[in-house]
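Sample entry follows:

_____
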Amino acid sequence: METQDKDLKYWQSRRTRLEIEGRAFIDGAYRDARSHHTFDCISPIDGSLLARIAACGEADVDDAVCAARRAFDSNGWAGLNPRARKAIMLRWAALIRKHADELALLETLDAGKPIADTTTVDVPGAAYCIEWFAEAIDKVGGEVTPADQHLVGLVTREPIGVVAAVVPWNFPLLMAAWKFAPALAAGNSVVLKPSEKSPLTAIRVARLALEAGIPPGAFSVLPGGGEAGKALALHRDVDCIAFTGSTPVGKLITQYAGESNLKRVWLELGGKSPNIVLPDCPDLDRAAKTAASAIFYNMGEMCTAGSRLLVHREIKDALLDKLIDASRRYVPGNPLDPATAMGAIIDQTQLDRVLGYVDAGRREARLLTGGSRAHAVDGGFYIEPTIFDTGNGNALIAREEIFGPVLSVITFDTIDEAVRIANASDYGLAAAVWTADLTTAHDVSRRLRAGTVWVNCYDEGGDMNFPFGGYRQSGNGRDKSLHALEKYTELKSTLIRLR
């Protein structure tokens, strides 16, 4: 059935036939947690129970890490001919595409994301990520360095060993792929811990990895809460841990790594990204529509969300009228309906957090639209797209990461003021500037302290060629691009005396 023919009825029917696996995947097999403890996986769509999931703890972490170490030391994955390793990963990506409807449905039910997004962005994006790094395996080489004429100097990259990946709930499969694809491509073994709020697609793709030919132990999946994440960060046989999530948890992981074996730590953390619209903006209509998408796409549950809209006073009223009109496209609806552009907040806890910020906003700023809980589907967790005018941006909602569909509009009078406000944040993940002047675009882009800067657009560059990550408390290291491969390798210098 073609994508355009898959309506709400189709996805509801598939839901009734869906078989959900809730066990951990360790050393090539599904198994219960050693404690036999489970936790409930609740759909944010309607509050229904999807499955009971293995609650992995320290003993399960040790099992998975030991299996990963055995797989690595046996050289069954890292020692493969690069083309053979590439072929296996390409088969894995092909299997993900083959099971795309199943995975998209799992992602939508588990995370509340619109099915229109999981079918076009999340699942194909994960497959593409695996394909991209698979194709890099037999194309990235080392160096022959200048040396004394009696020496041959080689610089090579080797897999670091056992990599733990701890990933968030907002893009469960795609963010996981950004970690495990380059780590596996480099020849490492990977232990993946998905968020306890959205573990289903990670559990499912583990079986597909085995089916594709990734050896037992080289890729394991441990569902569970903070205990499992802490155990991975403290484990002395984990060589590297890559984490995407909140800044406070990232700080804890760094602390645990230091307390144990000083394992390599890579962090992609929070954001409070500024979206600056200068008075010479070339297209206010497009800027308004893009600003709405920048904060309301994926229910605002994005670390790069354009949650601070900085608008020059001269064009503020005109832009706000267009922005409020653009926000009406993001009416919360049933995520299983392909016509829905805005789905459900991940769970009751996050909904309460977002509504708490909305309440704070009502006290400090002027509410322009939204601000209430919505009831798209009974029992689900929905909120209206919300916009506040925060004046100079000193309000709490304009400073702290909300991770929900709440936009703070900030007024400025000069470019210098806009840059100062944009950089006055603990974060530095992304930013944007709208201007018709090429010199201004270059100047402001250089001055913005962010890992990604968009000009006259937002959240573009969805391919894998651009590194992704942030400055300051938005983390360190980069996902995507060949730079991500470097994170999961060790550099080795080899000098050979010829005579």
Remarks:
- The two ends are 68 Å apart (CA to CA).
- The first strand starts at residue 24 and ends at 26.
